[in-house]
Amino acid sequence: MSWGQTNPIFLLIILNGVVCGGLFDVKCSHETCQCGKTVTITCNLTHKLREIALNQGDTDYTISLQKEKWFTDDKTCSIESAGEKVQITIYKVKYSDHSKYSLTFIAEGSAGNEKRDITINVSGLCEPEISENNETREYECEAESDKKASIIWNDGDSKVYQATRTKEPEPFQKGFKLRSSLKLTEEISSSDICCYVDGGYEIRSCFPKIPETGRVIDPSNSKNPTLSVVFILLAVALIAAAVGYLVKRRKVIIIRARSLSQGPFMGQEEPEEPQENNIRPPLLRQEPV
Fold it and tell me: Yes or no: is domain 129-213 CATH 2.60.40.10?
């Protein structure tokens, strides 16, 4: 093929670029995030968008750009679009989010579309998830970590319980998935049970959750701090009422004692003593015998 024959082809490509305003391209940032935190990925585009198609694992979405902020059904991801910039925010990142999201950017007009896989480098330890298995009568704890570790069970304080079953750490999305189970006993059923990854005590989950992690407290529990505060306030109110009554009673006794020892106050007349009734009954007239 001669140069003369290829000229029209090059001209066609150049003209297509001029008419369409240039080739459509998308560049997205690559982020590193601590597990459990929130991360935002920014994508810069060469054209304005008509819509975005999102694949989240097994779920597909078609996103209308009329909304200022769009959320997935599970509220784990949101997307904002402004002109030629798109921001994808993922909340409470896990290792499973590493390559979970795929976006197809569809430009306005005939500029075409571009597909991008959103990759996140996750590090650190995720908050464990604890649940109760009614069939096996066990608590189950699952966590994701960037290193092999074991799960520890305790009562939220210092007492440690021996795990019933512990699975080997499973490689998972550039991290490890950790699993452990604890058999329910009478002692364990009546206590707060927590699980955490060895070396990460500050990141733990409890069942039921203890107050510092958002526990919903059972009103029938005698350890309920709200009820304790109510009882204390009632006791203080009763003591205050009793003290007030005693003080008032004492004042009344003092006033009566003074009035008896000093007589009536100035300007006050002594009460008149009741006079004896000297009226004698009339004598009966004696009839002559």
Answer: yes
SS3 186: helix
Cβ–Cβ < 8 Å for 73, 59:
yes
Count Cβ atoms below 10 Å from residue 65 Cβ, excluding itself: 17
Secondary structure E strands in 170-235: 170-172, 175-183, 193-197, 204-207
CA 26 distance to own-chain centroid = 36
Q: Does the domain formed by 22-123 have CATH 2.60.40.10?
A: yes
Q: Which long-range contacts (CB under 8 A, 24 or more apart) does 118-121 make?
A: 118/28, 118/41, 118/88, 119/30, 120/31, 120/32, 120/33, 120/39, 120/41, 120/90, 120/93, 121/30, 121/31, 121/32, 121/33, 121/174
Cβ distance 95 to 35 under 8 Å? yes
- Three-state DSSP at 89 gives strand
Tell me the domain boundaries of the chain: 22-123, 129-213
User: Omega into 171 within 30° of 0, i.e. cis?
Assistant: no
Express each pLDDT in 205-230 by its tens digit.
887 765 544 333 333 343 444 556 77
Return the pLDDT at 280.
Answer: 56
d(CA 184, CA 192): 12
CA distance 145 to 177: 7
pLDDT of residue 142: 92
Please write the tens of the pLDDT for every residue from 250-276.
Answer: 887 887 777 776 655 455 555 554 555
HSE-up of residue 207 (Cα within 13 Å, Cβ side): 18
- Report the SS3 class of residue 277: coil
